[in-house]
Amino acid sequence: MTSETDKHAAAPATDATDDVQARAPSEGAAYFKGGGAAGVTAGDRNPPKGADDRFAAEDAETFGWAGADAGAGDRARIAELEAENADVKDRLLRLAADMENLRRRTEREIKDARTFAVTNFARDMLAVSDNLDRTLQALPEGARDSGDAGFKALVEGVEITGRSMLATMERHGVKKLEPQGQRFDPNFHQAMFEVPNAEVPNNTVLQVVQDGYAIGERVLRPAMVGVSKGGPKAAPTVVEPAVDAKPGVPDESSKDA
Predict the structure, then answer these.
(1) Residue pair 35/51 in contact by the 8 Å Cβ criterion
(2) What is the domain extent for residue 191?
(3) Are 194 and 229 within 8 A, CB to CB?
(4) Total domains in the fold of the chain
(5) Which pTM value belongs to this model?
(6) What are 9-62's pLDDT values in tens digits?
């Protein structure tokens, strides 16, 4: 027979077992209905209502119930990267343009340095050429023909020296200006006086006092000239456009006479 003490000792154990069995279905039901892998699909984005907080946190991390916030963060990051990419691309394009400008400027400076490297030397040598010309101009008329052979050889030697100097300067890009009979150009000529003449157009170079020289496209020394005054106005220079010949048709100027 069972005593009263044994009945009271067994009763709490029975109640505890019943309590566990009573809670187990509710916890299991909550897990399998919304909290576990068997009760939730990947497309379900709503967390289970009434579920345990621990299960809800795990499911939110596993199935992306917090995807809206994550998507917004991704879009912000993508926008930031695109802006950074655009800024880097713009800076690279500007750098490429600067390098191209630097390359062109360097090539132009090198070309100018090669062309105009002898500018100062050539300008100094012009004084020597002028002295040779003054030597020949100082000879009285008829002195060359009336002098002896040695005097004639000296004069010829001065002339040859002057021509050789001009040829040497031309090889280095220095050219002598020929303004006689041309229209006055203030870029290459310097007017010293005016000569009244009604037969030639106005501002025509009639006399050259000192020869001028140019190096490349730059004037090395302007020619000192005398220009006409009182004549008719010079007609403006008209440049006719070049006419392209038709393919297969010979140009009239190239036909045999």
Answers:
(1) yes
(2) 177-234
(3) yes
(4) 3
(5) 0.51
(6) 444 444 444 454 444 444 444 444 444 444 444 444 454 554 455 555 555 555
